[in-house]
Design goal:
heterodimer; A: Helix Hairpins; two-stranded antiparallel ribbon; about 80% helix; B: alpha/beta; 5 helices; globular
């Protein structure tokens, strides 16, 4: 009975292992795709930040750091983040969406104190920020996927190298034991038979 | 959700101009650590942007935050450009997950 249950469990474990292996391979493929994208976006971020910093230092020279700081302090918060979750093969990865408030066209600083460089700086930093948020999104995805891959790998290995061999060992042991029992029974029967035969012979001899 | 920036003075001003609401200019790693700890307790923050130079000093706490929360911490280069690091955290992560090192070609100009 136990043997039958164990055999069934072995089949189940093997099926589970195959499924998990498939999942792991699929995840790794997805992971590679995401990674490639991440490196591209990273490059973009570096590039746009470099430009933004160049503009910033020019503005700083043109209008002076103190005034610049004052202007910066007066700029209201214009961006809001919306975090949603997306599903990649059962892994929840973040999806970021930036919402810009529409009342941005209002002048926030005077023309007289500032130069047009300030406008381009702001634009450049906005661009950089958008790229950074895309990077954030994809890095989040990379991290989650990596975690899931690790988990799946661990499970596959546990099934492959621990659970399935254990079940196989137990099955082998039970089979061996059953065979042993069969042999013992066989010999016991033989022995009884010979005993009985000897007894009956004795009886026959006694009768004679 | 909000975006928060922990950075040096110049980077902070830049992002302030871009309209980010929560800006924390810091001058020392200690200060950055305190700020990050405080920010991680708030639950209305979705993303924290940190410059690479500062983040390098906070590696341990960032790692812990990744384990505990769903916060996204993104590291950006500062005005001196990206720094060459011995252990790039993302590359390290890839190495431990895949068991192999992958190199990607740089995006074409």
């Amino acid at each position: 009975m136990e043997l039958l249950i164990l055999r069934r469990r072995k089949i189940l474990a093997e099926k589970g292992r195959d499924l998990l292996e498939e999942k792991r391979d699929a995840l790794i493929m997805e992971f590679r795709d995401v990674l490639e994208k991440m490196y591209k976006i990273r490059e973009e971020v570096n590039e746009s930040l470099k430009e933004a910093f160049k503009e910033l230092s020019e503005v700083k020279m043109l209008i002076g750091p103190l005034i610049l700081e004052e202007i910066a302090n007066n700029i209201p918060q214009a961006l809001e983040l919306e975090v949603k979750m997306r599903n990649i093969m059962g892994v929840r990865v973040p999806l970021l969406k930036v919402k810009e408030r529409q009342d941005q066209e209002v002048m926030l600083y005077s023309f007289i104190d500032t130069s047009s460089k300030l406008d381009t700086t702001i634009k450049k930093f906005r661009e950089a920020l958008r790229a950074i948020l895309r990077l954030a999104e994809i890095e989040g995805a990379v991290r989650r996927l990596a975690e899931e891959i690790k988990k799946t790998k661990r499970r596959v290995n546990a099934l492959k190298y621990v659970i399935i061999p254990k079940i196989e060992n137990t099955i082998r042991y039970i089979e061996f034991y059953l065979e042993e029992m069969e042999r013992e029974d066989f010999f016991r029967l033989k022995r009884i038979k010979s005993l009985l035969e000897r007894k009956s012979e004795e009886r026959i001899e006694a009768a004679i | 959700m909000e975006i928060a920036v922990i950075a040096d003075q110049d980077t902070a001003i830049g992002f302030k101009l871009a309209g980010v609401g929560l800006i924390y200019p810091v001058t020392s790693v200690e200060e950055a650590r305190r700020t990050l700890e405080r920010l991680s307790k708030r639950d209305d923050i979705g993303t924290i942007i940190i410059t690479e130079r500062i983040a390098d000093g906070l590696r341990d706490i960032i790692k812990e935050l990744y384990k505990k929360t769903s916060l996204i911490i993104v590291e950006i280069p500062d005005k001196h450009g990206p720094i060459e690091r011995e252990v790039d955290p993302i590359r390290e992560l890839i190495r431990t997950t895949l068991g192999v090192e992958i190199k990607f070609k740089k995006a074409k100009e």
